[in-house]
Amino acid sequence: MASKFFLLALMAMSASRALASDPGQLQDFCVADRTSQVFVNGFACKDPKTAVVEDFFFSGLHMAGNTSNKQGSAVTAVNVAHIDGLNTLGISLVRVDYAPNGQNPPHIHPRATEILTVLEGSLYVGFVTSNLENKLFAKFLNKGDVFVFPQGLIHFQFNLGTNKAVAIAALSSKNPGVITVNNAVFGSKPSISDDILAKAFQVDKNIVDNIQAQF
Ligand SMILES: *[C@@H]1O[C@H](CO)[C@@H](O)[C@H](O)[C@H]1NC(C)=O
User: Fold this and answer.
1) Between which residues do disulfide bridges form (predicted)?
2) Ligand 1 centroid to 68 CA: how many Å?
3) Mutation probe of ligand 1 site: the residue of 68, 70, 76 with most atoms within 8 A of C-beta
4) In the predicted structure, residue 148 carries a pLDDT above the cut 80
């Protein structure tokens, strides 16, 4: 009797673990069918017999992104939008280029944990835990160093070096999503009322208007 209960508890635990990331697939692959009119969580599969090797292929990650922008960084993503065969597989990749003093500003991946490795240069990286602690975990990374950003937490990377930096990161979703905090809070369309943001940040409305004007 006790062992039966233990088995049930174990099954319940493993079921909830399976729901902690992208759902597990029930077949070898499910190449995204872009023409399907069926709306499912992800993309419908095309007939597996029509799958071709190109469905699992992407080329171009050797190319540096253009970092001539206000943040001085460029993210080149390789997810299900770029490789149809990633549909249902729960994984994707990004290349991030950083100009000297460039940063990948504070952002959140709502659906993925990220594991990043520095290929070139050095970075100062960090993430902040949820309420109530809001504790910052931050570290200087050099070439070859690896760092993990847990799912759903605000994180950033900053290039303190005088040379450019390059990182590759894997994410535990075919479609991790990105919420860049500054864009979402101060650059939403339409804007969040400056009354609300002034109260939220405990600053004058003029300051909020100034920040909103940057977007
Ligand atoms: C990089 O982006 C800047 C700003 O948009 C643009 O002026 C420049 O031509 C781009 N450089 C390359 C090599 O594409």
Assistant:
1) 30-45
2) 6
3) 68
4) yes
The domain spans of the chain are: 1-177, 179-215
142 labelled as ligand-binding? no
What's the one-letter identity of residue 205? K
Under a CB-based contact definition with an 8 Å cutoff, are residues 120 and 102 in contact?
no
Residue nearest atom 12 in ligand 1 by C-alpha distance: 66
Helix/strand/coil for 174 = coil
Which atom of ligand 1 is nearest to 69's Cα? 4
Total Cβ atoms within 10 A of residue 209: 13
Residues with CB under 6 A from ligand 1: 66, 68
pLDDT at 206: 97
pTM of the model as a whole: 0.87
pLDDT tens digits along 91-141: 999 999 999 999 999 999 999 999 999 999 999 999 999 999 999 999 999
Amino acid at 101: N
Rounded Cα–Cα distance for residues 82 and 70 (Å): 26
CATH 3.40.50.920 fits domain 1-177: no
Amino acid identity, position 10: L
- With cut-offs at 50, 70 and 90, classify the pLDDT of residue 55: very high
